[in-house]
Amino acid sequence: xxxxxxxxxxxxxxxxxxxxxxxxxxxxxxxxxxxxxxxxxxxxxxxxxxxxxxxxxxxxxxxxxxxxxxxxxxxxxxxxxxxxxxxxxxxxxxxxxxxxxxxxxxxxxxxxxxxxxxxxxxxxxxxxxxxxxxxxxxxxxxxxxxxxxxxxxxxxxxxxxxxxxxxxxxxxxxxxxxxxxxxxxxxxxxxxxxxxxxxxxxxxxxxxxxxxxxxxxxxxxxxxxxxxxxxxxxxxxxxxxxxxxxxxxxxxxxxxxxxxxxxxxxxxxxxxxxxxxxxxxxxxxxxxxxxxxxxxxxxxxxxxxxxxxxxxxxxxxxxxxxxxxxxxxxxxxxxxxxxxxxxxxxxxxxxxxxxxxxxxxxxxxxxxxxxxxxx
Length: 375
Hints:
The protein is an alpha/beta fold. The protein has helices at 6-27, 53-61, 82-91, 109-120, 139-144, 166-188, 204-209, 222-232, 253-270, 272-277, 283-292, 296-317, 321-325, 330-344; strands at 40-46, 68-74, 97-101, 125-128, 152-156, 159-162, 200-203, 236-239, 244-247, 349-352, 355-359, 365-370. It has two domains: 2-25 and 254-370, no CATH class; 30-249, Spore Coat Polysaccharide Biosynthesis Protein SpsA, Chain A (Alpha-Beta Complex), CATH 3.90.550. α1 (6-27) packs antiparallel against α11 and α6 packs across α12. The radius of gyration is 21 Å and the shape is globular.
């Protein structure tokens, strides 16, 4: 019967590591850039108008920083987000804000648009983040400062999610209490070759050395691939202190399932060993197995540590106050997440913004079938 307890104990040990990683994160010092504030080009690839889009892009325009520009790129001249971009240009006439309509044959439209924006950028430091990312005052200085560190090639940061529906709230809870702990544990164990699309700060010369965005235009996980290439050149990837916010909108359970399945299958082909090793982190499932086998002490330990680490990291580090208020939903979201993980073990197609993409073993993609854009 002790066999029923072993997976739960492994999950408990994982969340002990998450608690240790959270403690170390709290102790990290903000690097001193020595007053340096290099000019920055903010590259914003846009595909459709996300909820609270204007609020997100305005948070970049209001940054107090000596010199920066914002470059937006769309692949569709009729993109509904263009109206908000033009509004931003009108509200901030003194800020260099440009919009480019990019024609690209890249399977990853985002990478194709980023390639065009990087070529048009005027400044030596580039900042890339997703179109729906909202940032706090002081963000620019805080994420650029670590780039001054020795052999630092890329700076990234954690993120939390805002949500409107119960389904989206469950997904946001997973980001705050499951995904973020996995990132901290990976850093604790020395796996620091990845970047997050929430923020990627790098020098233009480093990007060119890594092959530019053209080198990752065939991959779905462009942020992971960029981080891996820069790490492979001998550079370090640093996490900055700010936590940014993405918006999940009013997603249905079907939309959440497709989004999470895309994410799951992308991780599987990008980092297979990490994906299959991730099975041990599903503490709620293994706690249920332990309970079914009469090993209540093991199940209780796994569930308690999972809840404690999730709430501490979600609410205490990410600043997601709803992670604490909705803590009771964590076990139910975990079981949904385990079902997604199981479904992600197989399959070679993913849905991305109205397109069905074929996913290959090496993480590359090819376009397949256009779907209903409202999906």
